[in-house]
Amino acid sequence: MEVDRMIHIGYRLVDCAISFRTQEATCKVKIPSEHLPEYLEEHAVADPTAILVVKTKAADDIHSIKMMRECHHQNILQALVVAEKGDYITVWAEPHIGPIASCLKSTVFNTDSIKVTFGGKIMLPTPKLQSFVSQIFDGLEYLKLQGKYHGNFSFENTFYHQFGDKSVVKLTDFKHKGAKPAQTYQAMDCQNVGEALQNISKGAILQYGTRRFDCYQIDDLVEKLKEVSWGDMPYIYPEIRRHPFFWDLKTTKTFFVSEIPLALNRPAFRNKVNGCEELCAPSWSNDGYDGLAKLMDDFRHRKSIPDYDKTSKIGYVQFLSGLYAHEEELQAKVSVDAVVRHRNPRVFLMLYNMIPKPPRFTTSNEP
User: Fold this and answer.
1) CA gap 307, 319 in Å, rounded
2) N or C: which end of the chain has fewer CB within 10 A?
3) What is the mean predicted confidence (pLDDT) over 149-158?
């Protein structure tokens, strides 16, 4: 265990608890000080609190603590002070509330404030789940860049802390796996995230059947994560983030304004659009899209641009692209993105999967 110097700190223990299942004692350590530690100042936290965790000297515990000491990233739980005494290691970790599994159970299906789609369902992910998973991959990518891996990922052993309105993920409970190259275990980290998301999807169906949630998007990401191999690691994280699961408004708009017009020039893409039965209803033009269809028709007439072909799927894709491209000029009283997501939440992933991806110059055979 790395010990740099002797530190004397006055403190007070509060909220003490012992878990007989994990054989760990936890409590908050109140540290009176006029000068807040750097990590607290960074987040403007007025209450200088650390979490005291007592662990054994088992190899997994020592490895996990070493990772918490060496890895400096906002999504890695930091071990601020580590001390050895007898058969135990005392760790003062930065503040954290608890596992994200508990938070997700209370929030991911509590969606009263989220607008349902045209079919009366809610498309997963919810904003909370999207944020958590995005931060998880931020932390895992940092580990990959350091030549390290998690080795033990799950929602149950991943923590979070609340800084104002922002929930910040904290990866912890790392485990040393074996003698294979790090890329092998980095790929397994991605697969484990996929398994955790699959449990979210299964839980939604188990609890509500198919009547409340649409898991089309989350299930597609799960399948892609389960297929990650060691050879994918040089570029996998940028590829993961391009998935519609993570799209915000800016990314969505860029996709429809830039990528879709280019794709429509390719016969292969147009053939896929025309062959996709689920893309839109044959009578899609009968839906006014909350007034956006008329505004777009009027806009095109003023510009002397021919109408979209309202009997074809190509015309539908061009219509969506035009809505995002000319939203400001249309001066609509509704959000284009909100209306499209309400009407056809699956269209983003369907079109994304139709666009060819760059070729991969790696082998999938494990070294």
Assistant:
1) 9
2) C
3) 96
